[in-house]
Amino acid sequence: MATRGIPDPNSREALLAQIRSALNDRIETLDPSLAEKHPADIADAIQAFEAEDLDRVLDLFTLETRADVVTRLADLDEELTGQFVEDQTVAELVEIVDEMDPDDAVDLLEVAGDAKAEAVIEQLEADDAEEIRELRRHDSDTAGGIMTTEYLAARPDETPPQIIERLKLESDDVETVQTMMICGEDDKLLGVIRAKALLTADPAQPVSTVMDRGVVQVVVSTDQEACANLMMKYDISVLPVVDEGNRLIGIITSDDIMDVVEDEAEEDMYRMAGVGDNEPLVHGAMVRAFRRLPWLATTLLGMGLICPLILHRWFEATLDQVVVLAFFIPAIMGLSGNTATQSATITVRGLATGEIDFGDLFWLIRRELAVATIIAVVCSAAMMVFAYGVTALGFESESAVFSLGRITATVGISMFAGIIVAVILGTSVPMLCHRLGVDPAVASGPFITTIIDISTQVIYLALATSLLLQ
User: Residue 303 above 70 pLDDT?
Assistant: First the structure.
């Protein structure tokens, strides 16, 4: 499926107006200048329409453009695409799917339901149907689920002119011509050759003499996030996918990986916030509420039950005698919590991109502590000045009973200790979750916030008890 049209980020409103005018005037086709707009711009514009109008809108475009637009619309608005697919007959879907790349067709049929998808596949040509069925066998979040089977494979004894001639004939049927696969007997992957090397190679020599044998490759069950990390690490635009016998079965291209990176980033972001859903705007209120409640229950359990019991049992006398201490609890908790979130975010991102692993735990803690120490000194000094001013001005009448210096020191030391502990926990908890096979992103929202809130209060009141009441 070729990409057509000239991109124009500013064309949305003009294109939208033209489409609406065509629908109102019952025009069957758009003006050629607008019909040739880039499919991505068209997909962006038609999100303004309701699902029931989408069929009439797409009928204004050629079948090839329609398939391109639906492919891009699936990435922009899954709910709208799902409603559109549901409204289409099997015959109409067959026309669209027939114009798509196999991997894009699989994504579209994923929202159609098994029965309708199978009915569409049955009406495709035998080769296309087999390719789509093969792709549908793999989990959607694995290498097999995001790969395409449209690639050019050459034999090691072929010469560059022979491969170039084949490329001219098959270019419309392959996903990319930047990198070509070199396969031996039984389609076993031997190496790759890039277009530049192919064009500059000795035309009389077989490609086996110039191909790159150090191939970065993955098996079909490799997680899509690991695939993305490999492509970014080795700066490659094509990643071969092989089976357990090292037979080439597909390739992953950079455009597929861009979608993966975006999906994984969204998923981690929502999990870190404790939303527990990578489509928070799609589902109904009841579904979204019950996906968030488990993480909020952590806060409820920790701050609503455990923390009051600890504070009441251990520090009731301290709070009764030095009420002014309660005035500084929100600031200490807030700064410590924010510091922990910053460290956790850095850790989760590093784990997601493969930059760090559990073995880097102490190295990362040392790096974070260096920054945290500076932050803690500055924040502690500011809090001590603030605490001195509050107590010196007699904000709380009983403050005069206790040493002004001790109250100020208690607040300052507690702030320093709270930030240091927060950084250690914010770095180590996601690492430990990763080590135990739990998604580290879930440790960075309400769960880690609750731990920090409880620990900082215990540190603060324990220091107050030791410095003021002993």
Answer: no
Return d(Cα 274, Cα 276) in angstroms, integer. Answer: 5
Q: What is the pLDDT of residues 388-415, one digit of tens each?
A: 887 776 644 444 446 778 888 888 999 9
**Distance from C-alpha of 91 to C-alpha of 106, rounded to nearest angstrom:** 17
E-assigned strands of 148-284? 153-154, 179-183, 189-194, 218-219, 238-242, 248-253
CATH, residue 160: 3.10.580.10
DSSP-assigned states of every residue in 37-58: B-HHHHHHHGGGS-HHHHHHHH
What global pTM score does this model have?
0.62
Question: Range with the lowest mean pLDDT among 13-27, 92-106, 395-409?
Answer: 395-409
- 256 and 371 fall within a common domain: no
Q: How many CA atoms lie within 13 A of 406 on its CB side?
A: 14
- Is residue 251 classed as helix, strand or coil in its secondary structure? strand
Q: Give the span between the Cα atoms of 303 and 453, in whole angstroms.
A: 8
**d(C-alpha 355, C-alpha 442), whole Å:** 19
Asked if residue 300 and residue 268 are part of one domain, the reply reads no
Residue 460: which pLDDT band, with cuts at 50, 70 and 90?
A: confident
CA distances from 96 to 43, 64, 68, 88, 383 (A): 15, 8, 9, 10, 64
DSSP 8: -
Residue 1 lies in a domain: no
In-domain check, residue 227: yes
Residue 101 lies in a domain: yes
User: What residues form DSSP beta bridges with 183?
Assistant: 189
Bridge partner residues of 194 (DSSP): 179
Q: What is the pLDDT of residues 178-237, one digit of tens each?
A: 888 999 988 899 999 988 889 899 999 999 999 999 899 999 999 888 898 888 888 888
Looking at the fold, whether 307 and 433 belong to one and the same domain comes out as: yes
Beta strands per DSSP E along 7-127? none
Q: Output the CA–CA distances (angstroms, integers) from residue 444 to 269, 289, 347, 424, in the order listed.
A: 10, 19, 9, 13
Which of residues 143, 169, 204 is at a domain's end?
A: 143
SS3 at position 246: coil
Measured CA to CA, the distance from residue 322 to residue 80 in angstroms comes to 59
What is d(CA 44, CA 55) in angstroms, rounded to the nearest whole number? 15
| 112: amino acid identity, one letter | A
Q: Domain total for the chain?
A: 3
Strand (E) or helix (H) holding 238: strand 238-242
6 and 38 in contact (C-beta within 8 Å)?
yes
Mean pLDDT of the chain: 81
Residue with tokens 């392959």: 174
